[in-house]
């Protein structure tokens, strides 16, 4: 029997009491029992509290595009609410249309989503992704060259300056700084909200979780020990006689390196690329986001927002866990 949308409670998580566990197709203002024979896309809506307007506004965009939607799952993950739909068709233009009507919720509109009950991998950027700061900016602030270094960091993250060049310029500005500053920054390094929930959820699912950072090894290794990460990759600062020399040792972990790390880790653990997720915020993360089965931009710079497959702006890293448990 068809059910008018207006008859549903405002809170999405209360719908199951009305709809039961039977799947329903969304047709105009009605929900009709039934399911898609074949889906070519997925839409996930996420918020702290998800109400009916998120679906009705989204359905208007889908209807205009000629897309049929099927309710797939309504649930709570890491204290956040989500609604998952299977789509009869998918196109890149759908994302833009859906984002224009999003008010108070995040969304993912993608051709495919990883499956949480199969082996998978999440690879994250570190600075401003796994943690809330840019470590090099904090080192520079304590070394008295904060404004100079922060300006170069902004240019690199916005794509106005090649990452490797920007890193060398920033590290050069730190020459002569006391290496003890590194431990001082580690002591005040704030985790990104949702990080511990994401890592715990991934471990429960049996997934691998790693960091590929254009930052530095002391901070990445600290996170690995603190959270039990499977692997970390970052840059090495040269230190002599207790002071930074202004040089980076070895090859720099840049955009291309991050994408290669994703592929190599997936191969090492026998994980298909379709079961990989990359999370980042800066221009040097775009290749990694594009390489992954699901690329997620977290509170990202405008250039990254424009190009990333999925953008989380209201939720934080717990939203990534929600996406993985949406199917």
Give an account of the 3D structure.
It is a single chain. The chain is 37% helix and 25% strand. Strand 13 (294-298), helix 12 (302-307) and strand 14 form a beta-alpha-beta unit. It is an alpha/beta fold. Helix 4 (135-143) packs antiparallel against helix 5 (146-157). It has two domains: 3-110, ACT domain (Alpha-Beta Plaits), CATH 3.30.70.260; 121-324, Rossmann fold (3-Layer(aba) Sandwich), CATH 3.40.50. It has helices at residues 16-19, 52-64, 92-101, 135-143, 146-157, 163-172, 180-186, 195-205, 217-227, 255-268, 286-291, 302-307, 318-324, and strands at 3-4, 24-27, 30-33, 41-47, 69-77, 80-87, 106-110, 121-124, 208-216, 231-240, 243-249, 276-280, 294-298, 310-312. The chain has 13 helices and 14 strands. The mean pLDDT is 95. The longest helix has 14 residues, at 255-268. Strands 1-3-2-5-6-4-7 form a seven-stranded antiparallel β-sheet. Strands 11-10-9-8-12-13-14 form a seven-stranded mixed β-sheet, sandwiched between helices.
Characteristics:
single chain; 327 residues; alpha/beta; Alpha-Beta Plaits; Rossmann fold; 7-stranded antiparallel beta sheet; 7-stranded mixed beta sheet; 13 helices
The CATH architecture of the largest domain would be 3-Layer(aba) Sandwich
Distance between the termini: 25 Å
Strand order of the largest sheet: 1-3-2-5-6-4-7
Q: What's the total count of β strands?
A: 14
Q: What would CATH call the homologous superfamily of the largest domain? A: HAD superfamily/HAD-like
Main CATH class of the largest domain: Alpha Beta
Assess the beta-strand content as a share of residues: 25-35%
GO biological process, one term: L-serine biosynthetic process
Catalytic activity: O-phospho-L-serine + H2O = L-serine + phosphate; O-phospho-D-serine + H2O = D-serine + phosphate
EC number: 3.1.3.3
Family: Belongs to the HAD-like hydrolase superfamily. SerB family.
